[in-house]
Amino acid sequence: MTRAILIRGLIVSILVGSLLTLINQFEVISALQTPNLLKMGLSYIVPFCVSVFSAMAVRKNPADPG
Questions:
Q1: pLDDT tens, residue by residue, 12-60
Q2: Which end of the chain has the smaller Cβ count within 10 Å, N or C?
Q3: Is 1 helix (H, G, I), strand (E, B) or coil?
Q4: Contact predicate 1/57, CB 8 Å
């Protein structure tokens, strides 16, 4: 795993995770209540894992014709 893949994964995680948190917990956030931290954490972890996994898969087999 390269540094560039990790940085890209973090950027994707921040952007997508923030959007998912707003979508999934808008009512709680707009009421100035504490959001569900587990859901919030997963909203950031899942995009990071997907981004890193797909980058590693492409790097492993870049000549895939599919």
A1: 999 999 999 999 999 999 999 999 999 999 999 999 999 999 999 988 8
A2: C
A3: coil
A4: no
Using the structure block, give the residue that is written with the tokens 């890193």.
52
Report the interhelical angle of 37-60 vs 3-30 (nearest 10°): 150
And the tokens for 30? 């707009």
Distance, in Å, from the CA atom of 7 to the CA atom of 59, rounded to the nearest integer, reads: 15
User: Running DSSP on this structure, what letter comes out for residue 62?
Assistant: T
pTM above 0.70, yes or no: yes
